[in-house]
Amino acid sequence: MNWLKAFRSKKRSKKVEPQRIPRAEHIVSRTQFTQGTLRTLYGLKDAGFEAYVVGGGVRDLLAGGTPKDFDIATNAHPDEIRQVFRNCRLVGRRFMIAHVRWGREILEVTTFRGAITDSHERDDTGRILSDNEYGTLETDAFRRDFTVNALYYDIRDFSIVDYVGGLEDMQKKVIRLIGDPELRYREDPVRMLRAVRIASKLGFSIEAKTAAPIPVLASLLREIPPARLFDEIVKLLQSRDGLANLEGLRHYGLLKHLLPMTDRAMADARSMEFIRLALTNTADRLGNEQTVSPAFLYAALLWPAVDQGYRKLSAREGHHPNVALNQAAEAVLAQALAHVSIPKRFSLPMREIWQLQPRFEQRSGARAKRLMTHPRFRAAYDFLLLRASVGEVPQALADWWTKAQDGVTLPPVTALDVEIEATDGESLPAAPKKKRRRRGGRRRGAGSAPAGGPSSGE
Ligand code: ATP
Ligand code: MG
Q1: What digits encode the pLDDT tens for the residues 80-96?
Q2: Where in the chain is the domain with CATH 1.10.3090.10?
Q3: CATH for the stretch 294-421
Q4: 52-77 confidence digits (pLDDT tens)
Q5: 88: which of 43, 106, 148, 249 lies 20 to 30 Å off by Cα?
Q6: What architecture (CATH level 2) is domain 15-172?
């Protein structure tokens, strides 16, 4: 097998001398670590072990950013870590990781991993299946994904240890895989997603040899358990860099293996604008520390496909709007689930956000009031605002609902409202409509596709 040959020829045999950057020559300060990080580092050091901050924590501080968390690497084995910290829990089946808890903060402490050898169990695409050997700082460094992720801050003398040229790549602002890129992607295809995510997080570029195999190997994502993919997609898209990540995923041919319907929708200007708005909205909310939910994110990413099916079923085939939407949602969800998992706790509210859309067209007092008490009203209303922003529904409809939430009395129906009302499928009996539409095609006012139908807001 090709990739295995490449692996054998690239096997490292001699010991590598790392570069050590003394405290005076780098900008990472202990004061930037959390209390829990310091306690864990000193706890291990005082018990006679090596302890380093590694990964995103060091990388983001060197780049002048704020790390999400601090991961710790040590030569202490899991049972030894547990002896040092009473507040410690071991997780993971094959490779055990220690979670050390300090109040609300949980630190992930990993024992140095051993080198990858031919004896590691792989599947027939090269993916590593078993991984349970411990190693040294050096073997651990070469096991990490990108050079900028393999910089170790040593709590003994506050220096940074670099085995792989990570500091140079930080300066060059490049994301580079350690070792042979094709092999490393085959070992774990999720690294392709991580390359895109970390590059946009830092504003770095993906180095040419690291970037080149991605489009070729993108289909290996199919081998990844769907639950892991779900988590990675949320990390990528429900983020302040969500839009850059989405564009990166598309650029490298990854998106079509994750969310093929979103990939196709991005070729359409209005759908792209809708998705762009949804992601920038999410990024703004994250910036304002407002809540965000994968349900809303997925509702937006898949909406262009749902909307297309919905329009087809309601306008062309004459289904009642609620029925049309349900059917379209069902079909889209089934297709999406063939690629990634969406846990029920997100897919149910996601469907509700979609299903409430036609109901915004029905603005009789009692119905409107009932809709406003629906648990998913707020998310569905935010979704309606996005649709109005791209001209999928009239802005007047969104404004009506904005006003409706202000007071007990609902705003009067204006001239434009009457026009919208005329396209409201609910007010017409379903059966005759069906017939009319079959003969009349997609005539203005004849369709029941107010949500994005050609009659609305174009
Ligand atoms: P962030 O925490 O900002 O998302 P991160 O790089 O710290 O980014 P984590 O998932 O916390 O990401 O991983 C911590 C470190 O573990 C990484 O920096 C890297 O050194 C290593 N790592 C994570 N995932 C992989 C992987 N798939 N292959 C090899 N090393 C990995
Ligand atoms: Mg991290």
Answers
A1: 999 999 999 999 877 88
A2: 294-421
A3: 1.10.3090.10
A4: 999 999 999 999 999 999 999 999 99
A5: 148
A6: 2-Layer Sandwich (3.30)
